[in-house]
Design brief:
This protein is an alpha+beta fold. The chain has one domain. The chain is built from two helices and four strands.
Length: about 80
């Protein structure tokens, strides 16, 4: 799977910025087992989805740049 790091960030209602990592440029359903493995790995590495990271559609959002970099190192 191809990973794309976007320069734009998402700011939640509390003002926290998240860095976006897009998985491929297409829908994640093309490789669903890998998509699930990515989610499982992120949960094991960064804790439950919510505070430090979250996933939506074909994107992973990380609060900390270092977490996004670890994710990229693991899956690229």
């Amino acid at each position: 799977m191809k990973l794309i790091v976007e320069q734009e960030t998402y700011v939640d209602k509390d003002g926290t910025e998240y860095i976006s990592v897009e998985v491929d440029g297409r829908s994640h359903y093309g490789d669903y087992p890998t998509w699930l493995a990515m989610i499982d790995w992120a949960a094991a590495a960064f804790g439950p989805e919510a505070d430090r990271w979250h996933v939506s559609n074909k994107r992973f959002w990380f609060r900390d740049k270092q977490d996004a970099e670890w994710f990229l190192l693991r899956w690229s």
